[in-house]
Design brief:
With 125 residues, this protein is an alpha+beta fold. The protein has two helices and nine strands. The chain has a single domain, classed as 2,3-Dihydroxybiphenyl 1,2-Dioxygenase, domain 1 (Roll). Strands 5, 6, 7, 8 and 9 form a five-stranded mixed sheet that branches. The protein has a four-stranded mixed sheet with strand order 1-4-3-2, with helices on one face. The longest helix has 13 residues. It starts with a strand and ends with a strand.
């Protein structure tokens, strides 16, 4: 079971703005921040539990894929619109992906560092 995960961003301010906008439709926001010398970070989550961290002070690793659960197809659509408006790049607009399973509804965007970020809903319409 994973408690939290994180990575370094090239520009923490740009990444923070992107994730604040993109994750808001999923009910995820910034719940904690820290600054320690040249390092800083933002913890995103729900309530008071940060489970997704973006930090500075390191070199961003290779591109990765990260999927966030969405409670509805409408939330997936909102995630996509918000992420694109916040500077994300399209990597597959909202829609069904029946190759995964009949109700797999998802959208994909690239974040400011080129990571493939997804919102997915597994519920039927």
């Amino acid at each position: 079971m994973i408690d939290h995960y994180g990575f370094s961003a090239t520009d923490l301010g740009a990444s923070k703005a992107f994730y604040l906008a993109a994750l808001a439709p999923l009910g995820v926001g910034a719940v904690m921040e820290y600054a320690d010398g040249e390092e800083a970070g933002v913890g995103f989550g729900e309530g008071d539990h940060p489970y997704f961290w973006v930090g500075s002070g390191g070199v961003p690793g290779p591109h990765f894929h990260l999927a966030f659960a969405a409670g509805s197809r409408a939330a997936v659509d909102e995630f996509y619109r918000a992420a694109i408006a916040a500077g994300g790049r399209d990597n597959g607009g909202p829609g069904l992906r029946p190759d995964y399973h009949a109700n797999y509804y998802a959208a994909f965007v690239f974040d400011p560092d080129g990571h493939n970020i997804e919102a997915v809903c597994h519920e039927p319409e």
